[in-house]
Specification:
Elements lengths: L29 E5 L4 E2 L7 E11 L6 E2 L2 E14 L2 E13 L2 E2 L3 E2 L4 H9 L9 H5 L4 E13 L4 E10 L2 H4 L7 E8 L9 E8 L26 E2 L2 E2 L6 E2 L11 E3 L3 E12 L2 E11 L1
Antiparallel strand pairs: 1-3, 2-3, 3-5, 4-7, 5-6, 6-9, 7-8, 9-10, 10-11, 11-12, 12-17, 13-14, 15-16, 17-18
């Protein structure tokens, strides 16, 4: 079925702490298998734990490629440095694949093609030219790193979410691109300031935009022209703004994917039974 992402950081983040999967769009229907919590890695004395997710959904909106599917997999580890310090790190991948293109006709979508998508392999002789050279489907991935520190009256989270769509991004050639955040929880829901968050998002590097090995062109794809969107909303950070729908109601991709943005949020209690949450963003596109 369709299930929205669990809200993190008190709902104050611009994109739920994840630059590629934010909760900005409605949830994608599909079948998802995941661990319900962090599980211990054998022989680590419970110091190292992991969580994983694997599944496949279908993009049911009006798109350039009808009935396109969305594969997802992720693996994250949690290292308990000591009782008050944790380090979380890992990676995730989404891939739009299959379906029927309005210009190219049916695209590869059998089980062998699904395995190629899962493995990040290139297409075979029946695939479009771009997918024979690159990975089959439109892959959007991210590395994520987070440090959690606990004190008696304060919890601190420092996090980083780094996007990639090809080898240059996976090899961190676009190291400047990403989402950086600080979240402070003062553990006092009844206080005037309960939680505070600050974020900075940068997406102007794109592996040296305009160069032969660069031009990541985040969330856009020449085959899957509707890009990384669903029902006209960007699946990732809302600072990636989609283009207006055409006369057929189809979103032609992401219009703005190169920006610098600052975001802050806060929440607390004003008076008896009166609580507030405020969000402010400033972006240069």
């Amino acid at each position: 079925g369709s299930r929205q992402t669990t809200v993190e950081y008190g709902g104050l983040s611009s994109s739920n702490g994840n630059i590629i999967w934010s909760g900005n769009a409605r949830p994608v229907p599909g079948i998802w298998l995941e661990t319900s919590h962090y599980l211990p890695v054998p022989f680590t004395r419970n110091k190292l734990q992991f969580t994983a997710r694997f599944g496949n959904g279908i993009l049911t909106d009006d798109r350039w490629v009808e009935d396109a599917q969305l594969h997802h997999k992720s693996l994250f580890f949690k290292w308990a440095i000591n009782p008050t310090n944790e380090l979380i790190f890992g990676a995730e991948d989404y891939a739009v694949w299959g379906g029927t293109s309005r210009s190219l006709g049916p695209l590869p979508k059998d089980f062998n093609d699904f395995l190629r998508v899962v493995g990040g392999l290139s297409g075979d002789g029946n695939s479009p030219e771009g997918d024979e050279i690159n990975s089959l489907g439109n892959h959007v991935g991210a590395y994520r790193l987070e440090w959690r520190k606990k004190w008696e009256h304060l919890n601190l989270n420092l996090y980083w979410s780094h996007p990639f769509e090809d080898r240059s991004g996976r090899e961190l050639n676009n190291i400047e691109d990403g989402l950086w955040g600080i979240f402070l929880d003062f553990k006092k829901p009844e206080s005037f300031v309960h939680q505070v968050l600050f974020e900075f998002t940068y997406t102007k590097d794109q592996s040296g935009k305009g160069q032969i090995d660069g031009f990541d062109d985040f969330f856009n794809n020449t085959i899957y022209r509707s890009g990384f969107t669903f029902f006209g909303r960007t699946l990732g950070s809302p600072f990636f703004t989609p283009a207006e729908k055409d006369e057929n109601g189809i979103t032609p991709g992401v219009q703005n994917n190169s920006s610098i943005a600052w975001h802050t949020g806060a929440k607390g209690k004003l008076a008896q039974n009166l609580y507030y949450k405020t969000l402010h963003s400033l972006s240069f596109n």
